[in-house]
Amino acid sequence: xxxxxxxxxxxxxxxxxxxxxxxxxxxxxxxxxxxxxxxxxxxxxxxxxxxxxxxxxxxxxxxxxxxxxxxxxxxxxxxxxxxxxxxxxxxxxxxxxxxxxxxxxxxxxxxxxxxxxxxxxxxxxxxxxxxxxxxxxxxxxxxxxxxxxxxxxxxxxxxxxxxxxxxxxxxxxxxxxxxxxxxxxxxxxxxxxxxxxxxxxxxxxxxxxxxxxxxxxxxxxxxxxxxxxxxxxxxxxxxxxx
Length: 242
What we know:
CATH topology: Immunoglobulin-like
Distance between the termini: 36 Å
Helix content: under 10%
Radius of gyration: 18 Å
Low-confidence stretches: 1-8, 14-24
CATH class: Mainly Beta
Number of strands: 17
Oligomer: single chain
CATH architecture: Sandwich
CATH superfamily: Alpha-macroglobulin, receptor-binding domain
């Protein structure tokens, strides 16, 4: 199998208006998704009774068009999308840890950074659902390094979040994280790239996607850029800033 690969940076497609443009030679990377976790923890709805799912979400891995797996040594992205259908009175303070298969490591650089976004509900400042680039959020930021946690690499808000680097989630909020990875050995899908998501002390879920990396030796040409897309931007109703 022969393919060409970009030697240029990955970038996000069609995000904050005016901040990015797609060059004619860019390719947009497709995604391969793991199973949807419809319930990550439970809560009691604020001022009501009973229980409901607290969070939900899924993980994905970027591919090369049309649906080709990345090769050993090639940088690809993993993503996590989280939603908050639940409505506990105090919201959730979410701990996220990235669990990687053997031979897979993070590959963060200036050319291939971590991306962090939130979809905010309408409020007094915004009449519509709004895309928030958390890299510029004074309360959160977007981490470019990951300390070791009890289960994996902790994805902590560098500006503190809701405390101790945790991510605050209230009813209707969505978060999306994109993390660059690389593999030193082939991955056949037997092991997963997973995100341990813990919204409460006693509850957690682990959205994941089977890791698939082939052993091809690829000679790459530097004529393409690679574009990444956000699932957060296809949620109804539409989101301003996408």
